[in-house]
Design goal:
The protein is α/β, with parallel strands linked by helices. The protein is about 45% helix and about 20% strand. Strands 1, 2, 3, 4, 5, 6, 7, 8, 9 and 10 form a ten-stranded mixed β-sheet that branches. The longest helix has about 40 residues. The chain starts with a helix and ends in a 5-residue tail after the last helix.
Length: about 350
């Protein structure tokens, strides 16, 4: 009898030992799976490169650096800006489009996403197939200005004068396909006027001729023009924004002056290569929405008269599609070709 009891006890002990070993193995496996899942979700795991396809300076720099500074605080990794200009932004767009790096993003722009596809015969990237929209970060309104000697006080005066003298008034831009060129061609098409386009190699030389009176008009981003407007060296007759600017409360928008629905802004958003995982896309979009509206970021953007946006990937994708449809029509009408 004692022998039978001992044998039974031994069997129960062996069963308990196997149960404990199995439980331990299961717990260890679950722990490994948990650590693996955590590792997969721990993005970013190294510094993030934020490529800007333009030279340093201007609105693109302000938007990119203010956003990067805030993201560096919330993502737990440094987000650094790298300027890579050339070929109207095509060089940088091509590089990032071909990248499979999970830690590279790029600043998309009205030019690289909505204009270049319709003015270049062949692009080294596809703006719709090669990238994932992350978030529309900010809009910077275009201003319409004239030399003070031109006898116009508002947009309606300019339209009336241009219609009475077709082709005699001139406007300058930083080059064919530039934001200033697009802004005036859009206005010309909307208002049914004709003005002579004079392209320059950059905003600087164009502004020199506008200030000297060799040009009649121009359209430039708000940050570059505000000092000259306040000094009385150029007269602002309209803003391309949907509402009046805080810095220019007495200047009506184009829409207010007889052209409802008109909007002309330079806009900037973040894109990622197709290789970035969907979960990381959503995380980055959420952080961008907070970044552009953080106090320090707001201060920088508002100094540039920029409007922070911070929308979702889906909203940004819809915005890009609408902008492409709009600018395809304008560019075809104006027969714009790159320099």
């Amino acid at each position: 009898m004692p022998s039978s009891i001992d044998t039974s006890a031994s069997a129960m002990l062996r069963i308990s030992r196997r149960h404990l070993l199995a439980s331990g193995a299961a717990l260890a496996g679950a722990s490994l799976l948990g650590r693996s899942a955590f590792a997969a979700d721990a993005w970013p795991s190294k510094p993030v490169r934020f490529v800007v396809p333009f030279a340093p300076g201007g609105s693109s720099e302000i938007v990119a650096r203010s956003t990067a500074a805030e993201l560096s605080k919330t993502l737990g990794q440094n987000v650094f800006v790298e300027n890579k200009p050339g070929a109207a932004g095509n060089i940088a767009m091509q590089e990032v489009a071909r990248s499979d790096d999970q830690h590279t993003v790029i600043l998309g722009h009205i030019g690289t996403l909505a204009v270049n596809p319709y003015i270049f015969d062949k692009l080294p990237y596809d703006p719709n197939k090669d990238f994932q929209p992350i978030s529309l970060l900010a809009k910077v309104p275009s201003l319409y200005v004239v030399h003070p000697d031109l006898p116009v006080k508002n947009l309606q005066d300019l339209v009336k004068l241009a219609k009475s003298q077709p082709g005699k008034l001139s406007y300058g831009s930083a080059g064919n396909g530039s934001a200033g060129h697009l802004a005036f061609e859009y206005l010309k098409m909307t208002a049914g006027i004709f003005m002579l386009h004079v392209p320059y190699k950059g905003t600087g030389p164009m502004m020199q001729d506008l200030l000297s009176g060799r040009l009649d008009a121009a359209s430039v981003g708000a940050s570059a023009l505000l000092p000259f407007i306040k000094a009385g060296k150029v007269r602002c007759i309209a803003t391309g924004s949907t509402k009046r600017l805080e810095q220019l409360p007495d200047v009506p928008t184009v829409a207010e002056q007889g052209f409802p629905g008109f909007e002309m802004t330079q806009w900037y958003g973040m894109l990622a290569p197709k290789s970035l995982a969907p979960a990381h896309v959503e995380k980055l979009a959420a952080e961008c929405a907070k970044a552009v509206k953080a106090p320090d970021s707001l201060k920088r953007l508002q100094g540039d008269a920029a409007e922070p946006i911070g929308d979702t990937p889906q909203q940004f994708a819809q915005f890009i599609a609408k902008e492409q449809a709009r600018w395809q029509k304008v560019l075809k009408h104006a027969q714009v070709k790159p320099d």
